[in-house]
């Protein structure tokens, strides 16, 4: 029971992090009025957030291996609370951008820190399922931003809404201090301080482990499509190109969350019971994403609603599918460098998302703005990322399997679980 209580407390911090991550997305019109920003500047908030999040993953992983989950979760909550409180009080656009970067930095350290608790507090057979539950339950933060936060914003205004979210971060800090422990008593979870040279050597060692790169390409190929759809281009595509109302588009995003939750439970059970079939599952998810988009984009006009629902459901499976990447990192890395490995894996999907967001923007502008034809062309940039990810998965999977065949005993002695 203690393990579940500690995990649930860490999960609460992650839910609040997702709430912080998504508040600006649901308050775009209010942000435009408050900061005098047009659509282009508002999109900068999203891009900045993704850039900071992706860029901070490796440093966050190194800090996690050095100081442990508890310290990093507290630091993340403190950064996000400070950022949200600054957003609550400022009317300056540059200050707001800086505050949003601070929120992204705090968000970056939280998820992998909560994930690192799981292998210390649960048996290896349960780890894949609990990892999936961490990812999918964290999306409740998106529901909190879309319903109670938005209601508070409408009723009480910008300052009250954002200050309330900052207060939730303070609550998370108190609970983490009182409840969370990095591992059961007697288990060493933190490493010694390293010089710059030792740090670079450690980074190289972790990256060269085939399981780390397999996780990186897994995360890259599965996560980006639904992330780009949910964070930036999904609603404009559904309303402008497909002719749906804003309400219908919002409903499809709700369907996306529900589909991810259901798929996450199934994927967690399957990967726990059949660990040697994980890469096949990942490749099937990528193939289904590409197939669903191909069917929709091949149509000469707007797709029927049932097909759009099917598209959203299929790409939403990519979210929990990306969590398998962290399981690869856990399998092929000792606990001393697990945080670094998880940070590297987490970069994959967000780097891909950032590239697709930017490339789609370039294509849409070059094609004359938002329209059915321009979106139809812009979404095709995804195929290049899928090709890169699948190639990386196939190459690193072969190397990982070869390592398991040739060095199983050494790996077990080092604490690596094949």
UniProtKB/TrEMBL annotation:
Keywords: Cell membrane, Membrane, Transmembrane, Transmembrane helix, Transport
Transmembrane helix as UniProt keyword: yes
Primary localization class, coarse: membrane
Coiled coil feature spans: none
UniProt superkingdom: Bacteria
Compartments it resides in: Cell membrane
Family annotation (Gene3D superfamilies): MFS general substrate transporter like domains
Membrane topology: Multi-pass membrane protein
This protein's GO CC annotations: plasma membrane
InterPro entries per record: MFS (IPR011701), MFS_dom (IPR020846), MFS_trans_sf (IPR036259), MFS_Transporters (IPR050171)
Record flagged with keyword Transport: yes
Recorded GO MF terms: transmembrane transporter activity
Protein name (record): MFS transporter
Lineage: Bacteria, Bacillati, Actinomycetota, Actinomycetes, Mycobacteriales
């Amino acid at each position: 029971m203690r393990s579940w209580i500690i995990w649930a407390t860490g999960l609460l911090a992650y839910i609040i992090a997702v709430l912080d991550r998504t508040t600006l997305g649901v308050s775009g019109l209010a942000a435009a009025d408050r900061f005098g920003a047009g659509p282009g500047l508002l999109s900068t908030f999203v891009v900045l957030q993704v850039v900071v999040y992706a860029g901070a993953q490796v440093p966050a992983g190194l800090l996690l291996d050095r100081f442990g989950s508890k310290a990093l979760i507290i630091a993340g909550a403190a950064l996000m609370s400070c950022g949200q409180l600054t957003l609550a009080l400022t009317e300056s656009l540059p200050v707001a951008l800086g505050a949003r970067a601070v929120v992204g930095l705090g968000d970056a350290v939280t998820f992998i820190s909560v994930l690192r608790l799981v292998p210390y507090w649960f048996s290896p057979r349960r780890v894949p399922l609990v990892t999936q539950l961490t990812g999918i339950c964290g999306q409740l933060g998106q529901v909190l931003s879309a319903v109670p936060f938005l209601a508070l914003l409408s009723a009480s205004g910008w300052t009250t809404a954002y200050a309330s979210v900052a207060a939730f971060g303070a609550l998370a800090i108190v609970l983490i201090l009182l409840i969370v422990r990095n591992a059961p008593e007697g288990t060493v979870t933190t490493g010694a301080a390293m010089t710059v040279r030792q740090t670079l050597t450690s980074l190289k060692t972790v990256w060269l482990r085939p399981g780390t790169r397999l996780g990186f390409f897994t995360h890259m190929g599965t996560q980006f499509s639904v992330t780009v759809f949910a964070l930036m281009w999904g609603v404009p595509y559904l309303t402008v190109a497909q002719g749906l109302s804003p309400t219908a588009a919002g409903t499809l995003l709700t369907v996306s969350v529900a589909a991810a939750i259901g798929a996450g439970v199934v994927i967690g059970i399957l990967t726990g019971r059949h660990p040697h079939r994980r890469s096949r599952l990942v490749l099937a998810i990528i193939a289904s994403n590409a197939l669903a988009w191909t069917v929709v984009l091949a149509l000469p006009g707007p797709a029927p609603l049932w097909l759009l629902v099917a598209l959203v459901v299929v790409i939403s499976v990519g979210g929990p599918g990306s969590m398998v990447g962290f399981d690869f990192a856990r399998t092929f890395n000792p606990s001393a460098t697990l945080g670094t490995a998880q940070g590297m894996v987490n970069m994959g999907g967000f780097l891909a998302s950032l590239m697709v967001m930017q490339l789609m923007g370039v294509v849409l502008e070059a094609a004359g703005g938002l329209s059915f034809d321009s979106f139809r062309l812009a979404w095709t940039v995804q195929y290049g990322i899928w090709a890169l990810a699948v190639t990386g998965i196939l190459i690193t999977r072969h190397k990982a399997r070869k390592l398991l065949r040739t060095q199983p005993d050494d790996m077990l002695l080092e604490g690596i679980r094949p």
